[in-house]
Design goal:
Layout: H1 2-11, E1 14-28, E2 32-34, H2 48-56, E3 66-67, E4 70-71, E5 79-80, H3 86-90, E6 99-115, E7 121-131, E8 138-150, E9 165-175, E10 182-189, E11 229-236, E12 246-265, E13 282-290, H4 306-309, E14 322-324, H5 326-333, H6 349-368, E15 374-376, E16 388-401
Parallel strand pairs: 10-14
Antiparallel strand pairs: 1-5, 1-16, 2-15, 3-4, 6-12, 6-16, 7-8, 8-9, 10-11, 11-12, 12-13
């Protein structure tokens, strides 16, 4: 029989097609779920900031579970809906062409911004003094920044947490040289109140409550739905205090769920990421929805990310007449950094927002990829997760008749 088949093939009546595409229906289900509560966010980020620093320094690679700004669920065993098709795929020409295609719900962090109006920002020269770095005298000026910031509907601030605004008081140290333009950018978490007066930091509270508490992890989390991050970007000279050169952003942290189609290698470990995906996943933006933090209609999360973002390994790099905190140093000199001049000044607000959002997303997906967010499903309980339907795809060899002979 084998000889007869070989004779037919050798005669040219039959030919071998070596790359015939085949497809079969498959399904799987998530083996993990998401817990969006990050109750100890001021203390523990699961090592995400250190990991991202190492990734950007080419000391390690991103673990499976994320791609870009998307975090994917882990998958259960992938099964064929028709078991008889499995043997055909097992004989596929090459594992390189054997892959699965699924549309999966991915999480995507984001920031929404509210720009404090210029007319609400007031600058003053607080004092002049002389610093002594390395024994050399150099004049500096302290610039005071004062602003009354209106809070979103339903958010309250102040010492007792009962006001729809809060005072922002901050200061910048800049060079006093006439005409020298100084750049400074800072990111910090904001404590809107109510405040725990037993936990004071160096900013103090004061009787007039005209202060913003920042950087003290002992303070309570912000109320739900309130902004949790403030960014101040300054581009000014000591002799030209124009509020138009100060950008103050209130940032609210949000999480989207979006459907994303991805092609996974057939020998993958059921984790979706840079090594298992054959190409960048395609998101269907029409499916994107914001997730609530557990309160109906409240889409912002009060994660305390400042202590971790300021722990980024500072890259090697300095900017003349500029002061950068570790987050912005990483943003300028880290992977695919953005030039500082593209993020300062009143004409660059959108670029500043995009750059902050990009790095914040890259950090947050690494947090989501830790056990803080990613929880293994307990399969001892009845299966309640919706299955993910997809396809198995491969190339096989097939005999066909050559009718041209």
């Amino acid at each position: 029989m084998i000889g007869s088949v070989l004779m037919i093939i050798l005669s040219g009546l039959w030919v071998v097609q070596s790359a015939v595409p085949i497809m079969a229906s498959v399904e799987t289900s998530p083996s993990t779920t998401w817990d969006l509560r990050w109750n100890n966010s001021a203390i523990d980020d699961g090592g995400a900031s250190a990991l991202l620093s190492s990734i950007d320094l080419n000391e390690t690679t991103s673990p499976e579970g994320v791609w870009g700004d998307l975090a994917f669920p882990d998958l259960s065993v992938i099964s064929f809906l028709d078991d008889t098709r499995m043997s055909v795929f097992n004989n596929a020409n090459s594992a390189e062409f054997f892959h699965f295609v699924f549309t999966l719900p991915a999480l995507r962090p984001s920031l929404s911004y509210e720009t404090v109006p210029e007319e609400n920002i007031h600058l003053s020269s607080v004092s002049n003094f002389t610093d002594i770095p390395n024994g050399l005298y150099e004049p500096f000026t302290i610039i005071g920044i004062n602003s009354v910031v209106d809070l979103p509907q339903g958010s309250n601030g102040g010492p007792s947490g009962n006001r729809q605004y809060f005072w922002l008081n901050d200061s910048l140290w800049i060079q006093s040289s006439m005409g020298t333009m100084n750049k400074r950018v800072d990111l910090f978490q904001v404590h809107l109140g109510p405040w725990d007066r037993s936990q004071k930091d160096f900013h103090g509270f004061g009787d007039d409550d005209a202060s913003i508490e920042k950087g003290n992890i002992e303070q309570p989390d912000n109320p739900d739905g309130c902004p949790s991050i403030v960014v101040i970007s300054a581009y000014l000279a000591a002799d030209d205090l124009s509020a138009g050169n100060i950008i103050v952003l209130l940032c609210s942290q949000k999480i989207q769920e979006v459907q994303a189609e991805g092609s996974l290698r057939a020998n993958e470990t059921r984790r979706v990421g840079e090594r298992s995906l054959l190409s960048p996943p395609l998101t269907n933006e029409s499916t994107a929805i914001y997730l609530t933090n557990g309160t109906d209609g409240v889409y912002s999360f009060n994660y305390r990310v400042e202590p971790h973002l300021l722990n980024f390994t500072q890259s090697r790099g300095t900017v003349i007449n500029a002061v950068l905190d570790p987050f912005f140093n990483h943003m300028v000199f880290g992977l695919n950094g953005s030039p500082l001049e593209d993020m300062t000044g009143p004409n660059n607000i959108d670029r500043l927002k995009d750059s902050i959002n990009r790095l914040h997303k890259r950090y947050m997906v690494q947090v989501m990829n830790t056990p803080i967010f990613r929880k293994t499903l307990d399969h001892s309980y009845p299966k309640t997760q919706q299955p993910f339907n997809g396809t198995a795809n491969a190339l096989v060899s097939r005999l066909t008749v050559d009718y041209t002979l």
